[in-house]
Design brief:
With 340 residues, the protein is an alpha/beta fold. It has 3 domains: 6-48, 434 Repressor (Amino-terminal Domain) (Orthogonal Bundle), CATH 1.10.260; 63-164 and 296-322, Rossmann fold, CATH 3.40.50.2300; 166-294, Rossmann fold (3-Layer(aba) Sandwich), CATH 3.40.50.2300. The chain contains 14 helices and 12 strands. α1 (6-13) crosses α3, α9 runs parallel beside α10 (195-211) and α11 packs across α12 (250-262). Residues 50-58 have low confidence and may be disordered. It holds the Pfam family Peripla_BP_3.
Amino acid sequence: MERPTIRDIATVAGVSPSAVSFALNGRSGVSQTTRRRILAVANEMGWTPNAAARALSASRAGALGLVIARPSQSVAAERFFFEFILGMQAALTSAGVALLLQIVTDPAQEIAIYRAWWSQQRVDGVVVVDPRRDDPRLASLSELGLPYVLVGERDEAGMPSVIGDEEGMIEIVVDHLLERGRRRIAYMSGMSTLLHTERRSAAIASLGRSRGVEIMVSTAPDYTERSGAQATTELIAGPRTPDAIVYDNEVLAVGGLAALRQEGRRPGADIALVSLEDSPLCRALSPALTSVHREPAIMGDTATRLLLEHLSQEGGRAVQCAAPSLVVRDSSPPAENRAS
């Protein structure tokens, strides 16, 4: 009787070949319920380890996946994802692995793509961005047994992670604005369902209390220029006008800058502007936009290498991103320069 392969076990158990490999080798990446089901099926089918080695190499798709659940116009305008994908591609090219990329509008579509990729055995693992609280995507990936790396937060299931320093980013921005004499600081986030906006909102509120400065939090529905303009118009029409606005990214800030001019305000002089993402666009604006500089390409490269490492051996390492830095430009001038 022919010995069963990992692919055979995966078919009977209703999981991916990678999930079977993780379960049979005692590795993280699958839930205990899924692990028990796989082990039971393997035992019933008479699986033996020496048959698995050949099956594992045959089961590899030779590709990793990335799904971005944001409006396409937002992704096209954001420098972050462009550089992040370049970083991923650099790591994948050196490893001889392909990248499958898809852009969708919501997490439900993202989960559907993961299920399709899994059923068609098109990817060996995925890079997950924009983590959310009680993230349904992670539960679905664990159920499928599809390996992943989480970008932005530490993964509670023990999968590899790239962790952002959201609190450090907010602190350098707030301290800079205080140094420039600003005392009513607004933070404009996009997509409040994302954990990084939640962390940033909490961080700026905490700093407001500790530094004795007034903080306002506003939310744009997405990361488009139009949303940035609309949310800024509503913000400055309120009873307390901020003297500084911190935007989640440069696309929102572009919309905000246009809205301020439309309302007769002087960007920089009347209201300081800061973007939490840097790009060449920030330098080209007038006034040039003070921005937080990160290294998205390094983040993409690191995330990819962590996932490839996890696929080849046991490991769920979490790596902290390099500390962000502030690039000071004309949109946040010193107090003595604001009257002109």
